Amino acid sequence: MTQSPTPLHWKLVIDAADPHAQADFWAATLGYEVEDNSVLIERLLGFGAVPPEITVESHGHKAWRDLVAVRHPEDPYDKESGTGLGRRLLFQRVPEPKTVKNRLHIDVHTKPGQRESEIARLTGLGAAVLREVKEPGGEWVLMTDPEGNEFCVH
């Protein structure tokens, strides 16, 4: 008898030119929280384990310069590191810009009758509408986040 594998913990990692701006956009979009890793960072700085130049000030506390995550506010997290243990998106700085269509994207589902107001809210946060899609299987709006990553609003 084959045993089922133990479910794996995962996160979605998104390349970014400005991880902190992307994290702020997606936290506002999804109602998530930007993770606060300052306790861990301050501890590592105090031990001399990491150099100060790999950190920045963000939201009034120390943060990693080149990566930041957002997490669902109801999911558990490690209080010593600030790292989410559930649904989360991690944004990491990369040197190259986005050049082609995403192979993986996020779908945002609105409440019935709320799609247009949600699109207006997201546009106000820096998203852009690419096109409206109407197919036999459904309707949605294809949008891009501030760095051009595609996502759909249903």
Walk me through the structure:
Residues 12-153 form the Glyoxalase-like domain. It comes from Streptomyces vastus. This is VOC family protein. Pfam families: Glyoxalase_6. There is one protein chain. The chain has 154 residues and is of the alpha+beta class. It has three helices and ten strands. The strands form three sheets. The protein has a four-stranded mixed sheet with strand order 1-6-5-2, covered by helices on one side. The chain has a four-stranded mixed sheet with strand order 7-10-9-8, with helices on one face. A two-stranded antiparallel ribbon has the order 3-4. Strand 8 (128-135) and strand 9 (138-144) form a beta hairpin.
Could you give a short description of this structure?
With 154 residues, the protein is an alpha+beta fold. 21% of the residues lie in helices and 31% in strands.
